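Slide 14.
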Amino acid sequence: MTRGSYQTKQQEAVEQLFSTLGEACLTAEDVHILLQERGMDVSQTTVYRVITRLCQAGRLRRYAPHERGAAAHYQYNPCNKSHLHIRCINCGALAHLHCDEVEAFASHLNMHHGFTLDEGQTILYGRCEACRQK
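Slide 15: predicted structure.
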C-alpha cells in the first residue's frame, strides 16, 4: 500500500457524510460540526486533511469561494462525467447544470478557440429563480 492511500475511520466518516447529503455543498467547518453532532470525535485539522485527500482522489469537488475571505465549498462527486455548475450569488445555492447547450458551447470553445473547458472547475454565477422572485 502506498503512502496516503489508506482508508481511515475519519475518511470513511467524511465520505459517508457527503454521500448521504447528495448534492449539498459544505465547508470544512460544516463537515467538522456535522461529524461532531453525529458523535464522531475528529479534529478540524483532520477534516481538512481528509477533504484534501478526497479531492485529490476525485471523490469530492472543491469550489473556490466567490468572495475573498470566504470558505471553499466541497461537494460529493459520485459521477466521473464533467458538467458545469450554477451558483446563486444571493443564497449561495449550487446546482449541477446538465444541458446539451453547455456541451455544444464546450465543443465550440475547443474547435474554434483551441480552448478546453475544465467543467469541474467552472461555475456560472447569477440569481436562482427563488431569489429573482423575492
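Speaker note: Residues 81-134 form a domain with the Dna Ligase; domain 1 fold (CATH 3.30.1490.190).
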